[in-house]
Each structure stands twice: as structure tokens, then as C-alpha cells.
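Possible race condition, two jobs.
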Amino acid sequence: MSGEGEGLSHVDPRGVVRMVDVGEKPITTRICVARGEVRMAVSTLELIADGRAAKGDVLTTARLAGIQAAKRTHEWIPLAHPLPLDVVELELRPEVDPEGGARVWIEAAVRAQARTGVEMEAMVAVTAAGLTIYDMCKAVDRGMRIEAVRLVRKSGGKSGVWESGES
């Protein structure tokens, strides 16, 4: 009933969607890193960086939202397993592009001792942080865009290390 190997592991041989049985998999250290960004007007980034957003400290609130969301990923993603996470770290960095645009760059690193990976936890952390930035700044910039949420590195388990190739 493991469903591992060829094909989609969340679909049984009859095509029925199911939660993967990880009960027989060994517990290993699982580490995943995900990234994304929130694109915005330079004036919005200035409000965030200067701590002048009307709703408060945007970066701290977004960091906390990302950590909280990672811990509750199984409530967001129907077939995800609830996992006891060892650590969730988020880095948020305001940046102005040379071309004149602006963004908050987001990176989440998640680690757990588990039978299954923490890819979804890392990507949910990035997404929740981005949504929080949007929510806290939408009154001044409805054109913000949450972009490029992706996995950049994972390790642990049978498949070992995977990297996207970006630095």
C-alpha cells in the first residue's frame, strides 16, 4: 500500500486519490528550502522598510505567519501528513530592483525528523508570509503580486538531495 515508485503516489492503481501510507518508511532528517517574492511599488517597499505601514511591523508579522502556517500545513493541503517540525526559519529581505521595481524576497527553511518530506511546509511558509505582506499593505498597493514560490533544495529520505540549481 506504499504507492511509491512510478506514477503519482497520491493515486492508487484504480485512480482513487488517497493519503500515502508512510508507516513503513524510516525516520530521517528532512530539510527543505523554498523561496518566493512579493512584487510591489517602490513606495510600498519604503513603507515596509521604514516601519510605517498602517497595520504595523509587516516583516515580523509575515515571518510569524509563515512559521504558524508551516506548522499547520496538513490543514491547508488535504493529503499532507501532520508533522512535528524541529524548526521553521524565514528570511524576508526588502529589495529595490535596478530597473525600478521592488520586492520582498522570502526564503523558508524547514527541518523535521520524519517519514516524509517537508517540501509542502516550506512552500506553505513562503506563501503565508507573502499573503500576509499583501494583506497588510493592500490598502496602499492592490497591484502587489506573490510570485515564483518554488522549492530550491531538499534532503533526506530515499531520494536524497535535490537542488534546483539556483544559488
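Job #2 (started ~2 s after job #1):
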Amino acid sequence: MSEHSFIVHEIKGYISSLFLVEENNRFFLLDAGCSCDFYKIKRFFEKNGKHLSSLKLVVVTHMHPDHAGGVRHFKRLGIPVASTEGAYKWYRGIGGFIQHKIDTYLAKFSAKRKGNIIEDVRYDRFFQPDFLLKDNDSLPFFPDWKAIKTPGHTFYDISVYNEEKKIVYLADLVLMLDGKFVLPFPVLFPKLMRKSLEKVADLNLKKILLAHGGMIENGENGIDFRKVILDLKENLGGKIRKEFRLLYPFCVFPHDKLFCVFKKGCE
């Protein structure tokens, strides 16, 4: 494997796809998955004759249970975790406590919708990252990859981008459900989401990695990433999926959401 080449391994997690990026026998993980996904990741290494110690970094894009749920397992083993400043405090305060309970329920709802058996998705409201990532920061130990801020779904979302290979992990910025590209639920900050979609549309991407949708090549089945993303931007503010309508009023508890509403700066 040359200095700038890598392999992306996709692991089907409990709710979302988990991506392990391998460079020169070292790995980093794009999101920690649900708590129960840790054992799927561990089995991947065992099956491929590798030790978990070759996992050098876990990147957490935002604090939802299928992205940050497994953090405590990696921290316990001394594997460093990187995230954005503020993301690990998303559930602070009474509002954050309520939101954490709601998001845990939503994880179970999503698993049930996928036909999965119910597993334990409880996870910590807070964690302390080993590395704090700002917009356009290179990942620790993997300088060809950088974090780019893509808020909208929450206030602190990031995506992870390799400029040379034109590949990006979008986490929950865009989803593919039932064969269609859709926006995540909820979009708490529409103005920020619009800017994030515009930023990604301008990257001239060759491949996208979706936590809900897997690995997709540009041009595959006639897909034009730029058009897809800009179409989603135009659909911002459209109807909420039927199964989520009753839940939306309960998704405004984080302090950051209320701050933006009162300041009228993020809506």
C-alpha cells in the first residue's frame, strides 16, 4: 500500500454503517456506532488477523447514539477519540438530559423500523475527546484527511474529507432510505444545513460514505452527487416524514437550539 493509498472497510452496524479506513496497516474509525457495535468492530479485527491496537483513532461526528454510543469502550482501551469542541457537551443541562432520552428512544425506533432485534443502546451523555477538531483541521495521525464543519442536523456536526481522492464521509448530513436520498431527522438548524449542503456540493466528489446508505460512487446508477445535494437543499423546509411528525416538537431541547431560536441566527 503506497503512502497515499487506503482501503475503506464498511461494517454493518446495529443502525448505521461503520467505516474503518486502513492506511499502511493502521486504522481510524469514522464514528463509534452504538454501544453494541463495539463488538462488531472487535470481531472485524479478529477475523482479519489484526489486533485492535492497530486502531489509532476514532472520529465522532456528532453525539447521537449510533455515532457516539461506543465511545466509552474505545476510551477504556486507551484508543484516542477526536471530535469537535462543543459536540461532546451537546446534552448538557436539563434540556440536554431530556434530549438524550429522546435520542436514545429514536435509536430504538430506528432499529425496530429496520427489523433488528432490540439491543442495549444506552450511552453516556458526555465524554472528553482526546483531540478537538476545528474546521479544516487534519485528523491526528492521518494528515490526508480533514474535518469539515457541516452543521444542520445538530449544531456541531462534522464530515471527514480526503481532498486528493475526493471522498467524504457525510455521517448524517445526507441519508439514503428506501433507495432515495433524503435529509436527516431532525434538521434543527435549516440555515446552517443549507450552507453545509452548498459546501459539500462544491467538493467535486467521486465517492461518498453515508452512515445510512453505505458507500456510493459518483455516476453509479446515473447518480450526480452535486445535483442530489443541491436538490436536497431546495427541499429544505419540506414535509417531515409521517413517522417523525409527532416527535419533532420534542427535538428542541438542547441549549444550542433554544439559543439560536431566541437569537434568530441559526434558523
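Residues 242 and 248 are 11 Å apart (CA to CA).
Logs attached separately.
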